[in-house]
Amino acid sequence: MGKKRVMVPAKDLDLSTVNYEHEVIKAPHLTGLMLKLFVRMVEAPVLGSLIMSFLKKQNKMVEVHFSCPPFMLQNTVIPEAPMFKPEFPPQDAEPSVVIVDEERKPEDRVELALKCLPHYDPASCWSGDSLPSFRYWKIRDYAYAYRSKLVTPSMVADKIISVIEDCNYHKPPTPLLISFDAEDIRKQAAASTRRFEEGNPLSILDGIFMAIKDDIDCYPHPSKGATTWMHEVRSVEKDAVCVSRLRSCGVILVGKANMHELGMGTTGNNPNYGYSTTRNPHAVERYTGGSSSGPAAIVASGLCSAALGTDGGGSVRIPSSLCGVVGLKTTYGRTSMEGSICDAGTVEIIGPIASTVEDVILV
Predict the structure, then answer these.
(1) How many Å is the Cα radius of gyration of the chain?
(2) Strands 209-213 and 349-354
């Protein structure tokens, strides 16, 4: 075995002494049947290890060369303990930053976030026009309308259900939700309407309609990850932690939003349910982007004020950008991943999508 090499901190390294020399990589160039045969040989228990050992030696991957940094890793000693999760020790608070206590109830936390926003002026949004032009209703717009008895969550629910049901008859179809239960939505909306009638809304999010990406648990809907089989091997018995927190604030959950199958793509294209893809609400001949295609599309369409997506390499940010809405990838650990299909990774997060930065803050 080669001599062990101990890595040193960059500040102690004299970079002028470091020389990089390109090595010639020797590997078989195979295609077709020869490639298939080579793969079978490499996968064979004994023969495969001999082949890989030969290729490594041929390319000096078991030697330690100061001039060849890529090949030093096998015999390199790193003095620091490995960081298995990207978490950092507590830091001094930044100036002018409001820290929301993680231990407080969700209702209290959203109330604190609400106090950080500028004053809400209903006159700027409620002009009294009989046929106003399209605009996104923000969370505080709905909250004002509910508290002023201009509309009720049940009235809004009926409109949303009607539009969602009509989406499947569009030419071309515009599928937004994979799992959808109209009666469950009406039941949630009726409970919210009663709270407003009694003067006891749970929070500023009470009566706000949200969709949940299909890889996040939202009981009683199955979590398919936009596949045709995941729900058969993975049952859903309760809400994901993030969904439970939203529900405790009075959020009305409309169902499971479409997505790129298992999040393995950035277009949102998914033919598993008889459709080519979730369509971009601003131009139905265009993609939404993915993988959180359904959440971004349902927000961009104006049906829901917000939605939850997941993001490992852009799956919230890409469709938000293509659909003209706001998506946030939070710092790792900022939101709980418990109850999502992708809860074991260290780059994946559950993040909000909304029409405005203000609403992203509240969600």
Answers:
(1) 26
(2) unpaired
- Could you give the residue ranges of the DSSP H alpha helices within the chain? 32-43, 45-58, 106-115, 139-147, 153-167, 182-197, 230-233, 241-248, 293-300, 317-323, 357-362
Domains and CATH numbers, the chain: 23-77 (no CATH), 136-362 (3.90.1300.10)
User: pLDDT at residue 68 above 60?
Assistant: no
Of 154, 179, 192, 291, which one is the catalytic site residue?
291
- Choosing from 138, 213, 256, 329, the catalytic residue is 213
Contact call for residues 354 and 305 (beta carbons, < 8 A)? yes
Most confident of the following: 58-72, 237-251, 338-352: 237-251
User: Which residues are bridge partners to 210 per DSSP?
Assistant: 253, 306
Percent above pLDDT 90 for the chain = 60
315 is catalytic: yes
Angle formed at CA 119 by CA 110 and CA 125, multiple of 5 degrees: 100
Q: Is 4 a catalytic site residue?
A: no
Active-site residue, selected from the candidate residues 192, 315, 320, 355? 315
Cβ pair 348, 308 in contact under 8 A: no
Q: Please say if 148 is a catalytic residue.
A: no
Whether the pLDDT of residue 154 is over 90: the answer is yes
